[in-house]
Amino acid sequence: MAIEASVILPSDSLEEFRVQFNNLITDVEGVQSGNSFVSTIIFEGSTADANETTILATDPTTDRTITLPDATGTFITTGNSGDPATTTAAADADHVLVNDGGVLKKITRANLGIGGTAGAVAADDLTVGDAAINFATSAGNITIDAQGSNTDIIFKGTDGSSDITPMTLDMSDAGALLLTGGKIDLKNAGTASQILFYCESSNQHAQTLIGAPHSEAASNTLTLPSGSSGVLLSTVSTATVTNKTLTAPVINTATVGTSITPASDDGATLGSANLNWSDLFLADAAVIKLGDDQDVTLTHVADTGVLLNAAMVVQFRDSAINIGSPADGDLDINADDEIELNSTLIDINGNVEISGTAGIVGVATFTAVPVFPNNTIETADIQADAITGAKIADDAINSEHYTNGSIDTAHIAADQIVASLIADDAINSEHYTDGSIDTAHIADKQITPAKIAGSVNAQTGTAYTSVLGDAFKSVTMTNSSANKLTIPPNSSVAYAVGDRIDVVMMGAGVTSIQGGSGVTVNGVSTGTVAIAAQFAAVACLKLATDTWVAIGNHGGVS
Question: Which of 87, 138, 444, 512 is most enclosed, with most CB atoms within 10 A?
Answer without folding.
Answer: 512
